[in-house]
Write a structure and sequence with these properties.
Distance between the termini of chain B: 37 Å
Helix content of chain A: under 10%
Number of helices of chain B: 0
Low-confidence stretches of chain B: none
Number of strands of chain A: 11
Order of helices and strands of chain B: EEEEEEEEEEE
Mean pLDDT of chain B: 93
Number of strands of chain B: 11
Oligomer: heterodimer
Radius of gyration of chain B: 13 Å
Structural class of chain A: mainly beta
Largest interface: A-B, 19 and 24 residues
Helix content of chain B: under 10%
Radius of gyration of chain A: 14 Å
């Protein structure tokens, strides 16, 4: 059963604390995406990787957010220090980008619901 | 102009009716278009993809694409209460950093 997994599913923390979210993409997929969803802003792209290399993180506040992909089976999103306005659902998605193709289907994980008090 | 625009709804239809969801996009060179369904508290689920002008049918779902008008739609035939969800239109943008851009979604309510 191929699917994207994310941990933790829920996280409640206090302002100023570090938060780390993890994602395991579907085996064989070479692109990984981090999204944030709020009622006000909808689904926003924070960062994405292709073949583990970061391609675009322009949607991410650089001073507090960082995204890495230490290996093909793990992507991480860190927030340090966290703030109440970071409260949202964070989704990871993965896909298979083939050279010359523009299909780019993405499959989402269950998300991490973050609450910063 | 937003890159991908959808009416937020809610769109209310009775059970058994056809639900029609619409989406417009700004990037003229986009080639890939997707519809995702998102139930409350859940993650987006890919239900349709379309790459060529015309219609693509999959069960009760039909995606329609008109690149000249920069318009993509999703028809749901024989709507069921279980179809009640938010439907997100997503367009793969070929400009700048190539990426999937989502609309804000249309909430569909199917009443029994």
């Amino acid at each position: 059963d191929a699917r994207v997994t994310q941990t933790p599913r829920h996280k409640v923390t206090e302002m100023g604390q570090e938060v780390t979210m993890r994602c395991q993409p579907i085996l064989g997929h070479n692109t990984v995406f981090w999204y944030r969803q709020t009622m006000m802003q909808g689904l926003e792209l924070l960062a994405y990787f292709r073949n583990r290399a970061p391609l675009d993180d322009s949607g991410m506040p650089k001073d507090r957010f960082s995204a890495e992909m230490p290996d093909a089976t793990l992507a991480t999103l860190k927030i340090q220090p966290s703030e109440p306005r970071d409260s949202a659902v964070y989704f990871c998605a993965s896909g298979l980008a083939l050279r010359g193709a523009s299909y780019n289907e993405q499959f989402f994980g269950p998300g991490t619901r973050l609450t910063v008090l | 102009q937003k890159e991908v625009e959808q009416n937020s709804g809610p769109l209310s239809v009775p059970e058994g009716a056809i639900a029609s969801l619409n989406c417009t996009y700004s990037d003229r060179v986009s080639q890939s278009f997707f519809w995702y369904r998102q139930y409350s508290g859940k993650s987006p689920e890919l239900i349709m993809s379309i790459y060529s002008n015309g219609d693509k049918e999959d069960g009760r779902f039909t995606a329609q694409l008109n690149k000249a008008s920069q318009y993509v739609s999703l028809l749901i035939r024989d709507s069921q209460p279980s179809d009640s969800a938010t439907y997100l239109c997503a367009v793969f943008m070929n400009t700048g950093f190539q990426k999937l851009v989502f609309g804000t979604g249309t909430r569909l309510l199917v009443s029994p």
